[in-house]
Amino acid sequence: MEYVSSTLNNLFHQTAFLSLGWGNYLMIAVACLFLYLAIKKGYEPLLLVPIAFGMLLVNIYPDIMAEGVNGHGEGLFHFFFRLDEWSILPSLIFLGVGAMTDFGPLIANPKSFLLGAAAQFGIFTAYLLAIGMNVIWPVLDFNDKAAAAISIIGGADGPTSIFLAGKLGQTALLGPIAVAAYSYMSLVPIIQPPIMKLFTTEKERKIKMEQLRPVSKLEKILFPVIVTIVVVMILPTTAPLIGMLMLGNLFKECGVVKQLAETASNALMYIVVILLGTSVGATTSAEAFLKPTTLAIVVLGLVAFAVGTAAGVLFGKLMCYMTKGKVNPLIGSAGVSAVPMAARVSQKVGSEADPTNFLLMHAMGPNVAGVIGTAVAAGVFMAIFGVQ
Question: Would you say 46 and 182 are in contact if contact means Cβ atoms under 8 Å apart?
Answer without folding.
Answer: no
